[in-house]
Amino acid sequence: MYPAVKQKKILVIDDERDLCDILLYNLNADGHAATACHSSEEAMKLDIASFDLLLLDVMLPGMSGFELAEQLKADRLTAAIPIIFLTAKDKEEDTLKGFGIGADDYITKPFSTREVLARVKAVLSRSRTEEATKKLVYKGLTIDQRQKSVTVDGTTAELTKTEYELLRLLMTNRGRVLSRQELIERMWPGDVVVTHRAVDVNITRIRKKIGPYSSCIVSRQGFGYLFEG
Question: What's the confidence (pLDDT) of residue 3?
């Protein structure tokens, strides 16, 4: 059973509200799930780790886009989120600073929505390729995403596809609690009826198969599960 393909969540952070409205309309029309806020401080109140990409204005009131990006790149939970800077500053040193922080792209205002959509598509595609080929490692527990395999201290663990995808999802979001409902929505097609109990059963099976690392999958009563370590 293959997980459903979900919309990519995109957060637009820009103090120009009219521009945000235009970007939201076009991003959503292009099949994404886009949200906007108008300052770094407002963005930091959100669960930024849940987004797949940020469109971040450099010149924001209060904390600048550069400063916010530096904080996000220094945090393990948000460091891997792709960032596309949006800015009216087109000097070479500004561009170099953006890429030095870890930006994936840099779009100078004014721009066309077609250009933004094309850049977003390219960055998301590149991010998916990189994510799909890298290994997820915690001590002796390794997920090889290219081989679709799991090893425990060098020994292959025989996980079903659902178990593999569930463990991969937890390790990818390491340190973040995922609710049972969120796990269901990201793991199973929308036309399949799945109960919270199904999640619990698969978690129990995974714990048995990863042996010494079973305690890393932690249950938060009333909230969900996380991979801790």
Answer: 43
